[in-house]
Amino acid sequence: MRITRIRLYEVRLPLVHRFRTSSHSKASLDHILVELTDEAGAVGWGEIASPAGPFYCSETTGTAWAVAVDFLVPRVLGAVWDRPEDAEQSWAAIRGHEFAKAGFAGAGWDLWSRQQGVALAAALGGTRARVRAGVSLGIEPTIDDLLTQVARQVAHGYHRVKLKIGPDWLLEPVRAVRTAHPDLDLHVDANAAFRPDEETIGRLAALDAYGLTMIEQPFGVRDFLGHARLQERIATPVCLDESVTDLDDLRTMIALRAGRVLNIKVSRMGGLTRARQAHDLAAAAGIPVWCGGMHEFGIGRAANVALSSLAGFSLPSDVSGSDKYYARDIVTPPVVARDGWVEVPTGPGIGHDVDRQWIQTNLLRAYDTAGSPRPTPTPIPRRPEERDLR
Ligand code: OSB
Ligand code: MG
Question: Which domains does the chain have, with CATH numbers?
Answer without folding.
Answer: 3-117+353-380 (3.30.390.10), 122-343 (3.20.20.120)
